[in-house]
């Protein structure tokens, strides 16, 4: 899966190096594969962002509840305040937005460094990583279950590295974006891979090891942090609060900019497309996205007690579907538009993108099939959403869709070359 994500970023880096598009990855699919497939990719991308933030809001409410021991009836209020904060930071934009995101990143890195430095002197590989004396499903060799168990955990594997694929949405805010964004995506992948690997070892080698009990904790680093620093147990959820709020803020940025770009292309109502100020902030789209994401959180939270599982399962179908389209778009660009200037060249080429497409198609199929997953509600929700959006496309969108100014400026050359083939 990690190599599949690496192939996705390699493909996306070359696409951004050709035509950086600030509206989301659906623009590449729309250009390379056609309007309908681009629209499907846009729907999956938007669903992925919304479900991620619904889960983030749930996490915020649970963290505040655990830290303050408030009554559970107040949890929607904490989620609401978290979304209001994310909306305000995004609307303010500019230096405020980027300073907050940078501060949250540095804070998170400090927590990880404390964990690495303090907790690694207390690791016990044989005692915890190999699963001794915890459950019959552990084989005392570091492995759990069989291949069917692996397919079940594919849902969780999908969450690795999420976020790097939204960096092309920063194209309007970056100087020399066609060179800078590919470098940042690939460098960030390497850093996250190393950080995640070290964190995995640290968590696995502390109590309770890779154990079902671990999945029920809000802060998975807590047991190792208890060896590193002695804090009040109520403080550990607060360590995760700022990174979670920053994550919700970043995905709201992605969703708002993507929704505005869809509006400019006629895929959603036109009132969402205005941008304001020197930073071209889509304020209306951001507010609408924030309200929608909170409603999704509130609705699912009311009907589905395990909201985080439900939301994660839905995006674990939508995101791999989007990633499959992006890899196919890369292949189409290589075949159809081979003469266009590239500021970054994917060294793995079409074979690498083919592996990426097959990898993410496999993940999407496994996560969307009831035979492999015990939870069917998220699967049904995904199919219902996509069915409604497809009907909406044929009834309305295909008659009014157009090319936005950014698409005309950046993709028209590709459209012309494609028409002349």
Structural write-up:
The protein is 71% helix and 0% strand. The mean pLDDT is 84. The longest helix has 34 residues, at 35-68. Helix 2 packs antiparallel against helix 3 (35-68), helix 3 packs across helix 12 and helix 11 packs across helix 12. The chain is mostly helical. It has helices at 2-18, 26-33, 35-68, 75-92, 94-119, 125-129, 147-157, 177-204, 212-215, 222-228, 235-264, 283-303, 307-336, 349-367, 377-400, 405-419. The radius of gyration is 22 Å and the shape is globular.
Largest sheet: none
- Identify low-pLDDT runs: none
How much of the sequence lies in strands comes to under 5%
The best one-word shape is: globular
Q: Which class do the helix and strand fractions yield?
A: mainly alpha
Radius of gyration: 22 Å
Following the backbone from N to C, one meets helices and strands in this order, namely HHHHHHHHHHHHHHHH
Count of helices? 16
Brief synopsis:
The chain is mostly helical and 421 residues long. It has helices at residues 2-18, 26-33, 35-68, 75-92, 94-119, 125-129, 147-157, 177-204, 212-215, 222-228, 235-264, 283-303, 307-336, 349-367, 377-400, 405-419.
Write the layout of secondary structure elements.
Blueprint: H1 2-18, H2 26-33, H3 35-68, H4 75-92, H5 94-119, H6 125-129, H7 147-157, H8 177-204, H9 212-215, H10 222-228, H11 235-264, H12 283-303, H13 307-336, H14 349-367, H15 377-400, H16 405-419
Helix pairs in contact: 1-8, 1-13, 1-14, 2-3, 2-13, 3-4, 3-11, 3-12, 3-13, 3-15, 4-11, 4-12, 5-8, 5-10, 5-11, 11-12, 13-14, 13-15
